[in-house]
Design goal:
Layout lengths: L1 H15 L2 H21 L8 E7 L4 H16 L3 E5 L3 H10 L4 E5 L3 H6 L7 E4 L2 E3 L2 E3 L1 H31 L5 H13 L18 H31 L1 H7 L4 H31 L6 H25 L3 H19 L10 H6 L4 H13 L8 H26 L2
Parallel strand pairs: 1-2, 1-3
Antiparallel strand pairs: 3-4, 5-6
């Protein structure tokens, strides 16, 4: 065991001086995590600004402004800015100061109370997002106004029906009074919203985790690839000439891969927490996920090295396997957005299990909640690593 540690420490000192290790194990994943988390924000962070122009000032108009529109502000969905004229609202939309404008024309209340068709105006401006403009703010405003219009229509129908059934003579003033009272009355059905525990990590945490598990495979190769490099350079034969068992040499290389992979992921966890504000959850559970994922990556890298003839060939195979598993495992997009078949296939990848564990921690879980992920990752590492070591013995066979 002491000889294996000596071999591992020697290799680790060499790797620390190798700039390619720093680039692939730390700088590349951290840079991509920062890029993705900045360009693709959380889906639940939608917020917009509306200009509201009330040219009517009547009771129905105030009901719209103080009711549904104020509800958007209370819910944190939109900020309402009052403007005096339609021209000012259009100018604000054109300048990009607001995403859309809602105009209540003069006479709106009178039209509603008289039972005549009334008109509301939404002035939409494109919201620039990645991939092109979005009309989402205007669509949200239209949906709110349509809902309010449906409520008004229902009241008008109810009032008209009640007057017809009672046999009362048509009285516009009475109809308007009843409609106003009905609009002011509380809703007969109250809808309450319940929230489940959020089991999805924030974008900063997700992309930090996805890039960490993607590049951990590149980090894990630096140790076991040393077997092929040592054989090519002739140093492996000299090591075997010493009283060192082949298994000791293999163990030393595996230790290097495991340590470099673990350090790579640990640095990304700390860096994204301090620099990006990522929230990884329970530190003990995160550490367990990091070590088990590093073990899985080391096992797969060892398996590939065991079947490769040269270090270049092994490096290419590891790159292909790493990218393929990343695509199917959800490192580039959340599996909730993937087709059903791809989501089912993702369970065959260590990436998906690591990211599942991160999502479990986002819900406030700990070691118990991530135990299934830990079990799968350790199993992958032990099985692939065991087969890889049996094959790699041929590389160091005297």
């Amino acid at each position: 065991m002491s000889a294996a540690l000596v071999i591992a420490l020697k290799d680790l000192r060499q790797k620390l001086r190798d700039r390619s290790v720093l680039l692939m194990a730390v700088l590349a994943p951290l840079g991509l995590a920062f890029l993705f988390s900045t360009m693709i924000p959380d889906q639940d962070t939608f917020h917009t600004t509306y200009a509201v122009v009330d040219l009517d000032g009547g009771q129905v108009a105030r009901g719209l402004v103080d009711g549904p529109l104020a509800g958007l502000s209370t819910a944190g969905v939109a900020t309402l800015v009052t403007t005096a004229t339609e021209a000012d609202a259009r100018a604000a939309v054109d300048a990009g100061d607001v995403a859309a404008a809602i105009v209540i024309p003069a006479g709106f209340t009178a039209e509603v109370e008289a039972g005549r068709p009334a008109r509301l105006l939404v002035i939409g401006g494109p919201l620039l997002v990645i991939g092109g403009p979005s009309t989402l703010p205007a669509e949200v405003a239209r949906s709110v106004l349509v809902g309010f219009g449906s409520q008004v229509t229902a009241v008008q129908v109810a009032v008209g029906t009640a007057m017809a059934v009672s046999g009362a003579s048509p009285d516009p003033a009475l109809a308007a009074e009843l409609a106003t009272a009905a609009l002011a009355a509380p809703a007969p059905i109250t809808i309450s919203a319940g929230e489940t525990v959020d089991r999805v990590a924030s974008s900063k945490t997700f992309y930090g985790a996805s890039m960490a598990v993607l590049f951990v495979f590149f980090a894990a190769q630096f140790g076991v690839l040393g077997l092929l490099a040592e054989r090519r350079n002739g140093t492996l034969a000299r090591m075997l000439a010493a009283p060192i068992a082949p298994a000791t040499i293999l163990l030393g290389k595996v230790i290097v891969s495991l340590v470099v992979a673990s350090i790579s992921m640990a640095v990304i966890v700390v860096a994204t927490t301090l620099l990006l504000g990522a929230d990884w959850g329970d530190p003990l559970a995160v550490a367990a996920l990091v070590i088990s994922t590093a073990l899985a990556a080391t096992g797969i890298a060892t398996l590939i090295v065991g079947f490769a003839r040269t270090e270049e060939q092994a490096g290419n195979f590891i790159a292909v396997v790493a990218m393929t598993l990343a695509v199917f495992g959800g490192s580039f997009f959340r599996m909730s957005q993937a087709p059903e078949g791809l989501a089912a296939l993702s369970v065959l990848t260590p990436h998906a299990w690591f990211l599942r564990g991160i999502n479990d921690l986002a819900a406030g879980g700990g070691i118990a909640e991530v135990a299934p992920s830990l079990a799968v990752l350790v199993t992958v590492g032990v099985v692939t690593g065991g087969i890889g070591l049996l094959r790699a013995r041929q590389v160091v066979a005297p």
